[in-house]
């Protein structure tokens, strides 16, 4: 009955639950702004700025942001490239492992809410020295009977040693009541770290997809520019040949020939960095796909095969803090810092522990749990640090400052996120206007070239004039390609700035 009462005390201690010291975390309030500029005019549509063949873009604050947002470009090559990269890029694997690690650490921390139970069995063979009374006949000094040595061959020496076996088996229970919430705050911190790693994984998906689309757009742009520049080089070669012929006829001087040589060399020089950039872009695509430089990807990208979406999503500032992985991670960092304040405070308070054991001991295993062989013990402990040179108090103050720092960093991250969205919106507007002018310039150059070619066919102008008109047109084409690429890139930046739709990744689980 007494032993039952003691273990009832242990059960009561297991139910001890005090308050969790330290601040209770509250999510920061979302920004109340409804626009991204002081005048309140952003966002604006680009309907006044034709994009391609009269196409324009407009914003829709109600539009959903899918995880596979890159499909708006209607490029099967981009889609297949990203899906393969999600399976092969090591950054995804690393982020997944980091998440599993955080999850297991949280599970490990949760284990401290429960008692620790263990069993042990300790058999031993012992020798008791003769001079310790191991074989002396008669009684010990306290009057108790000792073991008598019996030997048919005769009496043993007075100090002969005694050999015996001893067996101990026990069940132990240890428990640390979370009186001041130390473990609860540790668990809160571990859960916040898990949430942060989950967001880091989502951010890795979004960043990888954005980088791949940007690289694909760059490749498509460079290919178009190289095609135009190569034609410019051919034109300059023809112009040089014509100029040399005119020199032989005495129509031009050597100055014109030298000038044309310089123009050809300049065009050839401009082609070299484009070709270099194309190869480096292909290397980047291979690396993002998880390939080595010698492992090519089958996809090739052309600007003409891409579609620019006419509708763009847009989220209000209050939603950005929910959608941006970097903002959410900064929030979890703030949560971790808040929990660590509670941990630091709890460490300055008394620490409680309860241990108990029940078992049996005897010279043979079959007698361990018979009458007289059983035992138990129950121990409670309270420990409090009286003096430590101010270490625990200083750590508590440091945790408070870390919380202030995390709060400031969160606000800084929010400001940077909203600035990013505002910058992208301004860029969308500016590049739409830029594309409008580039398209107008390209159209004018095309009309001029067409008219010049007709005049040449009629014999009204020289072939030299036609080549010069075509060269101007090809330069306008390059400018148009760059402007078009900017518009495609703006769409990528906008989707990334709005969070990339990571919260919808569960609907596209096949991409994992």
Give a short synopsis of this structure.
The protein has helices at residues 2-14, 76-88, 90-110, 182-249, 254-288, 317-323, 325-346, 391-457, 463-497; strands at residues 58-60, 116-128, 162-175, 311-313, 351-362, 374-383. The chain has 512 residues and is of the alpha+beta class. The model is unreliable at 1-16, 48-54 and 136-151 (pLDDT under 50).
Key words describing this protein structure:
single chain; alpha+beta; Outer membrane efflux proteins (OEP); 4-stranded antiparallel β-sheet; 9 helices
Describe the protein's architecture and organization.
The chain has 512 residues and is α+β, with helices and mostly antiparallel strands. It has one domain (2-113, 178-349, 384-503): Outer membrane efflux proteins (OEP) (Up-down Bundle), CATH 1.20.1600.10. It has helices at 2-14, 76-88, 90-110, 182-249, 254-288, 317-323, 325-346, 391-457, 463-497; strands spanning 58-60, 116-128, 162-175, 311-313, 351-362, 374-383. The strands form two sheets. It has a four-stranded antiparallel beta sheet, with helices on one face. Helix 4 (182-249) runs antiparallel to helix 7 (325-346). The two termini are 60 Å apart. 30% of the residues are buried.
